[in-house]
Write a structure and sequence with these properties.
Number of helices: 7
Number of domains: 1
Structural class: alpha+beta
Largest sheet: 2 strands, antiparallel
Helix content: 40-55%
Strand content: 5-15%
Length: 197
């Protein structure tokens, strides 16, 4: 769990998924006169290894190869493409669903019993990317218990940050209403009044 997932009160069972989706920062708005810089926490295999290690997802000392790195980036792209849709529409985008299924197949999970008689999903992989299966397990668990519907992508094209919708009706569209929501509403208001003038 990161500082950001704690700050925005993302439930622990979705924290790695939330953090992973947000390793790519495509925000490009100006706030208080300052242009936001786009960035990618996962610039290469070493950065992916560091990111995984910080979250306890690096289960081996094996090196992450360039091919493994590309596999992880493809998973991130597919997760973000899936989350960009409104929860009710996610299953309707067949291309996004197919791409996500293709990416998920590379991170198989095995059901395993624990001492307390509960079941847990654990990685079937045993290489350096095994820990990324934890992200896939969070995606699966969230879809089963309904919390994945609260993980959304900001509707602002200038933001596209993934956020956890804590509102009671789960109808939020923006990561922050005071920033992204306000910017979009102000822009729409100006465009409506420009047409009237």
């Amino acid at each position: 769990m990161s500082k950001q997932s704690r700050q925005f009160k993302v439930p622990d069972p979705l924290a790695n998924l939330y953090d992973f989706a947000n390793t790519l920062d495509v925000r490009h708005f100006i706030h208080h006169g300052v242009q936001h810089s786009q960035s990618d926490e996962l610039a290469g295999p070493r950065e992916l290894g560091t990111w995984m290690s910080q979250r306890g997802l690096l289960f081996t000392s094996a090196r992450i190869t360039p091919a493994m790195f590309e596999t992880a980036l493809d998973l991130r792209k597919c997760v973000r493409d899936y989350l960009r849709h409104d929860p009710a529409e996610r299953r309707e985008d067949k291309d996004a669903a197919r791409a996500l299924n293709r990416a998920l197949r590379l991170f198989p999970l095995v059901a395993e019993t624990r001492d307390d008689r509960s079941m847990v999903l654990r990685p079937a992989r045993s290489d350096a990317l095994a820990g990324m299966s934890t992200v896939v397990a969070e995606l699966y668990d969230g879809s089963v218990n309904g919390t994945l519907d609260r993980l959304k992508m900001c509707a602002s094209e200038e933001c596209r940050r993934v956020f956890f919708d804590r509102s009671k009706p789960a109808t939020r569209r923006w990561c922050m209403s005071s920033l992204c929501g306000n910017r979009m509403k102000t822009r729409a208001y100006r465009e409506r009044h420009r047409g009237v003038a």
